[in-house]
């Protein structure tokens, strides 16, 4: 079982992750049981059997207290979550635990009872109501959901939560009962980390889980460029040769066009990511350095020149991308296919990855690329869906997922790949939901890298993500079932792409 410690996380972000991960499990694309442990900003949730009348204050009061309200798909009535409360979302395959929902709830209660006992609090069950109680006061609410024997939602243990928020509701729809917390009972609250550690140990024991992997997923980043965020500046004879060949053959690279921080290293290693269909893009993505302007006519000789340069460089693995060409009926799919065909003819030993735009979801255009049989088709989702309107206003998250899904369904033998930038204001839960969405459609390879603003006119960086956070994302991806995941500050979608592909081949052979 994987335990995710996420710290303070907006409720909607955690809810979206649960939905995405459960979907990936239903699709058979993820298998690991997961326990998410976190805190929420103030929020009231209303379960399937809840009624709005059990919220006792008006919307203005809730707004003043910065308390959100969500109607959700768990059992039970109304409850409150907030800072100082350890919230747990076990995402389990209940077929492994007896296919008994009542026994599952009983076991969750047992985990909490044992955890509280470690701190000298004698708690128990109530004959009429779920949850964990100390006398007539509830200290832990439990409300779960399950579909296809896959559990979601969970429990909320009051450690040092502000109990005044419970006066805004009729907790769990139960009148005449109170709520309490560890702080109220003990006089001082134990450390959240200590409670969490005890709870994980008891969860493992009660559910008889053989092994638990714990990963902390909420590392604070920097707001100014950290000293460790430096690309490798390399210049040697190889780099000069690459520059010379590009000029001679009149070719573009995304390395130069997108101001990639790894360009020097790649050129010095005699490799590059070729950018076809010109240097001007038809979209106005606010993160991208590629020029936006008058597009050039499609260059019919470009595929041959790309293939000849690949042969001269002796590349075993080549990555081909393009600007977005919404002005073309097929988005440039035929030009991609001709480039792949030219490489097969001129440099037959080279494996090919294409990093394609969404082609506006045109399935006929996708069929053209698929028919050319590259080894990998890559399409980047780029960011979390909540940021699309700000970061990728002309793109659509669901359409990007549909592109990758269509490729995998039409050509299971072709590996699919996607990438996401971080540092734009997303939370770990949102990133995890994207990873789960990608796995639900069978995406094989993943890249996660730090967003770096190309200029002051581009969307601003919200955070320089800590290196430990990138480790967390890689661990998540591996647990979710990606064949390979590259995650680091300077990782880009085509950076060392061959390493990931050949590592996958070694692991599967």
Could you give a short description of this structure?
This protein is an alpha/beta fold and 509 residues long. It has 16 helices and 21 strands.
Strand content: 15-25%
Percent helix: 25-40%
Write out the CATH superfamily name of the largest domain. Answer: Aldolase class I
CATH topology of the largest domain: TIM Barrel
Inertia-based shape: elongated
Q: List the total number of helices.
A: 16
Strand count: 21
What is the first-to-last residue Cα distance? Answer: 27 Å
Structural class estimated from helices and strands: alpha/beta
Largest sheet: 8 strands, mixed
Top-tier CATH class of the largest domain: Alpha Beta
Low-confidence stretches: none
How many domains is the backbone divided into?
2
What number is the mean pLDDT?
Answer: 91
Radius of gyration: 26 Å
The assigned CATH architecture of the largest domain is Alpha-Beta Barrel
Enzyme class: transferase
Subcellular location: Cytoplasm
GO molecular function: 4 iron, 4 sulfur cluster binding; lipoate synthase activity; lipoyl(octanoyl) transferase activity; metal ion binding
Pfam family, one: Radical_SAM
Describe the model.
Residues 29-211 form the BPL/LPL catalytic domain. This is Multifunctional fusion protein. The protein has 509 residues and is of the alpha/beta class. It folds into 2 domains: 2-216, BirA Bifunctional Protein, domain 2 (2-Layer Sandwich); 237-508, Alpha-Beta Barrel (TIM Barrel). The chain is built from 16 helices and 21 strands. The protein has helices spanning 11-26, 59-64, 101-117, 182-186, 192-206, 237-249, 254-257, 263-268, 302-313, 333-346, 363-371, 388-391, 397-410, 428-440, 467-480, 497-508; strands at residues 2-8, 34-39, 43-46, 68-71, 78-81, 85-91, 132-134, 137-147, 150-158, 178-179, 213-216, 252-253, 273-276, 280-281, 291-292, 317-322, 351-355, 376-378, 415-422, 445-450, 484-487. Helix 14 (428-440) links the parallel strand 19 (415-422) and strand 20. The relative contact order is 0.11.
């Amino acid at each position: 079982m994987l335990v995710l410690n996420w710290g303070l996380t907006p409720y909607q972000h955690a809810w979206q992750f649960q939905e995405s991960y459960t979907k990936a499990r239903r699709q058979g694309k993820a298998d690991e049981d997961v326990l998410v442990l976190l805190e929420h900003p103030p929020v009231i949730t209303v379960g399937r059997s809840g009624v709005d009348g059990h919220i006792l204050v008006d919307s203005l009061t809730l707004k003043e207290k910065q308390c959100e309200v969500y109607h959700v798909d768990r059992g039970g009535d109304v409850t409150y979550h907030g800072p100082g409360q350890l919230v747990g979302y076990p995402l389990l395959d209940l077929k492994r635990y007896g296919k008994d929902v009542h026994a599952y709830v009983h076991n969750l209660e047992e985990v909490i009872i044992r955890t509280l006992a470690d701190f000298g609090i004698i708690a128990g069950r109530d004959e009429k109501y779920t949850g964990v109680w100390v006398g007539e006061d509830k200290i832990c609410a439990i409300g779960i959901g399950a579909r296809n024997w896959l559990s979601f939602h969970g429990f909320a243990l009051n450690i040092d939560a502000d109990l005044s928020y419970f006066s805004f509701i009729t907790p769990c729809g139960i009148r005449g009962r109170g709520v309490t917390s560890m702080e109220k009972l003990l006089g001082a609250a134990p450390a959240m980390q200590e409670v969490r550690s005890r709870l994980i140990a008891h969860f493992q024991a009660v559910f008889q889980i053989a092994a638990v992997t714990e990963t902390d997923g909420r590392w604070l980043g920097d707001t100014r460029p950290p000293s460790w965020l430096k690309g490798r500046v390399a210049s040697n004879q190889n780099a000069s040769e690459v520059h010379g060949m590009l000029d001679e053959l009149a070719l573009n690279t995304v390395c130069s066009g997108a101001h990639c921080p790894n360009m020097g290293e790649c050129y010095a290693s005699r490799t590059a990511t070729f950018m076809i269909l010109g240097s001007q893009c038809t979209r106005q993505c606010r993160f991208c350095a590629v020029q936006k302007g008058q597009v050039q006519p499609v260059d019919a000789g470009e595929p041959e020149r790309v293939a000849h340069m690949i042969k001269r460089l002796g590349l075993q693995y080549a990555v081909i991308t393009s600007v977005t060409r919404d002005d073309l009926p097929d988005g440039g799919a035929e030009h991609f296919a001709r480039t792949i065909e030219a490489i097969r003819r001129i440099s037959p030993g080279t494996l090919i990855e294409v990093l394609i735009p969404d082609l506006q979801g045109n399935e006929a255009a996708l069929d053209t690329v698929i028919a050319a049989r590259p080894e990998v088709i890559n399409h980047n989702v780029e960011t979390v869906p909540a940021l699309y309107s700000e970061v990728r206003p002309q793109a659509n998250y669901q359409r990007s997922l549909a592109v990758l899904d269509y490729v995998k369904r039409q050509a299971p033998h072709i590996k699919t790949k996607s990438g996401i930038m971080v540092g734009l204001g997303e939370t770990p839960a949102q990133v995890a939901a994207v990873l789960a969405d990608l796995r639900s459609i069978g995406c094989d390879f993943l890249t996660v890298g730090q967003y770096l603003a190309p200029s002051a006119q581009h969307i601003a960086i919200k955070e320089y993500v800590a290196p430990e956070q990138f480790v967390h994302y890689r661990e998540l991806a591996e647990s979710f079932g990606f064949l390979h995941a590259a995650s680091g500050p300077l990782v880009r979608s085509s950076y060392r792409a061959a390493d990931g592909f050949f590592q996958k081949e070694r692991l599967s052979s």
